[in-house]
What does this fold into?
Amino acid sequence: MNQEPGSVPVGVIVVVDPGRYAQTVDAARQVGLAVVSEQPILGSLSETIAENRILLLEAVDGVESVDRERIIRLPPPYSSPQ
It folds into this structure.
């Protein structure tokens, strides 16, 4: 199955206005957000969204920032330094 260019899901961390958390999450879902985990007390979410929809997500009222997830791999403990 071929995907539309730019439609590949990417992981993002979104910071939202904690005072409008529920409304902002609902609006973000309408632009294509798939919530992975929520931290309402902190006002943040971890989720996936199609890469070509990130600008729409950033424009949602109540969204304060959108950052791509970064994976950092550490060597196993007690491994020799490089």
User: Anything to note?
Assistant: The helical segments are 21-30, 54-58. Residues 21-30 form the longest helix (10 residues). The CA atoms of residues 26 and 34 lie 11 Å apart. The chain has a mean pLDDT of 88.
